[in-house]
Amino acid sequence: MRVRDDGGVGEVTAPPQHLVFAYYITGHGFGHATRALEVVRHLVAAGHDVHVVTAAPEFVFTTEITSPCLHIRKVLLDCGAVQADALTVDRLASLEKYHQTAVVPRESILKTEVEWLNSIKADLVVSDVVPVACRAAADAGIRSVCVTNFSWDFIYAEYVVVAGHHHRSIVWQIAEDYSHCEFLLRLPGYCPMPAFRDVIDVPLVVRRLHKSRSEVRKELGIADDVKVVIFNFGGQPAGWELKKEWLPDGWLCLVCGASNTQELPPNFIKLAKDAYTPDLMAASDCMLGKIGYGTVSEALAYKLPFVFVRRDYFNEEPFLRNMLEHYQCGIEMIRRDLLTGHWKPYLLRAITLQPCYDGPINGGEVAAHILQDTAVGKKYISGKLSGARRLRDAIVLGYQLQRAPGRDVGIPDWYSLSEKETGVRPAHTSHDMNGSSESSFEDFEILHGDMQGLSDTMSFLKSLSGLAGNDPRSPEKQTRERAAASVLFDWEEEIYVARAPGRLDVMGGIADYSGSLVLQMPIREACHVAVQRSDPTKQKQWKHTQARQLANGGAVPVLQIVSFGSELSNRAPTFDMDLSDFMDGDKPISYDKAKEYFSLDPSQKWAAYVAGTIFVLMTELRVRFTDSMSILASSSVPEGKGVSSSASVEVASMSAIAAAYGLNIAPRELALLCQKVENRVVGAPCGVMDQMTSACGEANKLLAMVCQPAEVKELVTIPTHIRFWGLDSGIRHSVGGTDYGSVRVGTYMGRKMIKCAASDILSESLSSCVPMQSGDPNPEEYEEHGVDLLKSEASMEYLCNLPPHRYEAVYAKDIPEVITGAAFLEKYGDHNDAVTQVDPKRSYCVKAPTRHPIYENFRVEAFKSLLTAAKTDEQLSALGELVYQCHYSYNACGLGSDGTDRLVNLVQEIQHRKTSRGGGPSLFGAKITGGGSGGSVCVIGKNCLRSSEEIFEIQRRYKAATGYLPIVFEGSSPGAGKFGYLKIRRRSA
């Protein structure tokens, strides 16, 4: 058999024998079943027996294939990606379900599958793309081949980075299972697949058409001149309410997967569950749905314009989306517009597209021939090691390859050769935004402010200059974010730029919300935000924004935001809204409604950190924004590393907006307002130290702040012989995460218990006291029971005001280790925290979270005092010991992680080892930072060459153990208040 260059098949020799195929199909979506169907159909047509192992409905196969050679075995051997809704993957649930589905019963699965494969006398195992099938085939002595456009080790790899490395064994096991596969038949639109080294590319696999466009329309009673959109969100009914006015006049919508009880308007037609989708797609004028291989391949094959809504956290999507757009077949719809029915501009634009995919679509036939020849012994791959014999750390490889195309694995030409089109670049080039190397910040006149010699600010202005010289009509492909940003500003008008750094939590951490003293260092990495205000009638607008304005009957103030680096985080690069959405009549909407507004579309929830600053200014300062606003945000503070990327975005955004609107807001007040953004709009229960450091910090100084609520005590100059580093563990951190929130709840529970206990003791003391007579010899006896002290503890607002000795002497014995939410609420009522809630069904640790801030405040006070002590190794040892104590207290609260523990242990090993150089240690302590549960560690050491060498050694050793090379944060920079703002305007030619 020979596969021609055009994808056709020539010189096909009939097989000398009847063959038996075992075809395993993953338990994820209809797309896998529908493409497998086409391969199976050709194998059955050739007279072979095919045993399909699947969890998909039988009708997918039996409506297309009626043959005794087709055998369906209903078994679920993997779970794919678990979806929280039709458009959002639940990453942690996906890993946990895979663990229960495929890991726990693994030995039983292998035994069963080997016995079954031997019982049917299978000649070849085909997997799309069930990992354990490849291992079972090897155990049974049968060859196996995978057919797919993605593999689960790549998909799960990033989930592990987010969910924690304790799931890493899942990815390793999957990659090892794939290594037993002989080779991969790779479908177009493929992702990097690190576990496969031997690859054969095949054409698109699509289902054939049964009926013509006119036949289908005649059966449905639809005239040829009626425009039809097919609503296709896969096999998972969305349950959304659909309304008549959402379609353009005269249009009809065919709805796939509607529930039996769902009522539809007259211009929507409910399709049968087993409707043959390819015929319906070919009879439609465009499709509205989510991206998957099945929908994309058939849209391309039948040249159907595809209006797609981004699916969050599924790593296959960017690759298929790029292929759609490459062949002029796709338009992205914002999820908010989907849910609110703003469909018309997208549908009208879709029918103007001219899809141009002209590649072969006979992948099912080609794959069937290759599988047939492989089953009779033909070797397609010779003299090569198959599979992942040289396995790398698939976790990190998968995570990085999505962001760095062209490294180590094959990526389609249309992907790797069009980097500007796809927008996927290495994560470290956050300010290198495709600006011309010849462009210069000197293209702008600085009307106010000073760059203060900051290289990142210079780079940001260069990137703006590159945008200013860009022609959006240029035939050269661009990143989505860059194309959107190029029409964001009127370059002849003033633009305001603010800068806010991230922070390294040196001491204090989660004790901030309990009122502790904290010591924070603003880091070198920062977020830049550019803001321009404009008259609503003159603002440059994106096409769908213009369409919405026309539909609403005129120009209203509009907010448009572009976030650079969005493709690196698998989120939407743009956000827009009418500013009137924030208003209910003449008053702002509630915080709860604002939070709900940004929660509608997880891929755009990032916009809450930027647009939320506008809402807080409207709510708290009663600012009314009658102008339109354009905002560009670009941050080099990496997300999920525990260095306060969110605070830097909030502070930079509010600072730039305040400058543009002439609002005089002091840095401290601005930080408190930004905390409201995070607490009330985003919904993350953080304290205020992040925003305070970003707003009020100064370079090479520790911000010493008492968080009651935010009193800057002083700026402590870092002694020249001491240095701090941040080391990223690679485990994603979020203060919105469950662990952080539950520890905060436990802390506030402990505070309530102490206050109640103090009140009880106070009542007993007062009732036992005899009123004093004027002649009593000892009036101090009245204070025998510390009445004033008990009064202050009974009314205590901040837990950190309780000294450790009082906690141990009076209260510690009565604080439980754990309590259920229901038991707490029944005995104490509320825990009195405005930003968290007690879940009656959960159990909360109380003792460790209560103890931590009481002792942490004491440790921070001691640390601050020691900084000014004599410059000796004893000083550094004492400082390091306090840092270690903080780390282990975090762990006691349940906020540790394997990665951060490993980094701290490496610091300890290097600190205490005996070296041939002699002399004392250079590193003295390390601790987890910020909200914990991953993120970064802070390391303290001598400011010398040797300590820097040891930090790099830790980097290398950590990578050797985990596969992940930690980011090193070193250096400092000014906070937003110290930076001020720049007012710039492009120089006239």
UniProtKB/TrEMBL annotation:
One of its GO terms (biological process) is carbohydrate metabolic process. Transmembrane segments: none annotated. Keywords: ATP-binding, Nucleotide-binding. It holds the Pfam family GalKase_gal_bdg. SUPFAM superfamilies: GHMP Kinase, C-terminal domain, Ribosomal protein S5 domain 2-like, UDP-Glycosyltransferase/glycogen phosphorylase. One of its GO terms (molecular function) is ATP binding. InterPro entries: Galk_glycosyltransferase, GalKase_N, GHMP_kinase_C_sf, GHMP_kinase_L-arabinokinase, GHMP_kinase_N_dom, Ribosomal_Su5_D2-typ_SF, Ribsml_uS5_D2-typ_fold_subgr. Residues 616-697 form the GHMP kinase N-terminal domain. Residues 493-533 form the Galactokinase N-terminal domain. This is L-arabinokinase. It comes from Urochloa decumbens.
